[in-house]
Amino acid sequence: MLESYTIRDIRQLKALSHTVRVRILAALAEKPMTAKQLADLFGEEPAKTSYHVKQLLKVGLVELKFTRETQNGIVEKYYQAIAREFQTDPLLTTQPGGRSRLEPALVRELNQVQSDFLRAYRADREQVGADGQAGGPQDPADGSAVHHGLHRLRLNAGQREAFLRELRDLIARYEDAEGDYAFHFLAYPHPHQAGAPGPVTSARGHT
């Protein structure tokens, strides 16, 4: 499996224009799974996830990792993403249909991040309760299991490169960990304009 893969083929971008396929690709970047396991994970019909996996396989974003025969003689096919992380080549937007496919895909992904953030926040609040006495991993700062944050950073060019380098190193240090507490990060640096919000990084965590 590659550490990172850049999408430069409009067919691959088109395949990822479906939200379910984005979620499937993210799951298969973590470990090999069957279409049935993906269906159970997302609450979908196996036939539906099988179709989406085949579409990702067709454009080369996932691969058949191995097969295993069950005691009943059924051959299970385990698929895996070709890389741990994916990014889109900005030049794809210059191809016919590139921008029209890229922007809706980004909007859907951001909407998913927002939904996940709110769901994790509410779940953690319900877990700790009003008195903060419920079990589960606790944040030493306030005794809760909640650790959500939104941070705006205003950096110069040198600080930006240093920040991104340190962030990549930090993520690489823990990316193979297999604990129960998951942190998700979203960062998008952009030039700061007077009167406009600065570059933003956000972090959220949930069990």
UniProtKB/TrEMBL annotation:
From the UniProt record, which GO molecular function terms apply? DNA-binding transcription factor activity
Short name of one Pfam family: HTH_20
Which segments constitute the HTH arsR-type domain? 11-94
| Source superkingdom | Bacteria
Against InterPro entries, the record matches this protein to: ArsR-like_HTH (IPR011991), HTH_ArsR_DNA-bd_dom (IPR001845), WH-like_DNA-bd_sf (IPR036388), WH_DNA-bd_sf (IPR036390)
* SUPFAM superfamilies the UniProt entry points to: Winged helix' DNA-binding domain
Question: What name is this protein filed under?
Answer: Putative transcriptional regulator
- The species this protein was found in: Symbiobacterium thermophilum (strain DSM 24528 / JCM 14929 / IAM 14863 / T)
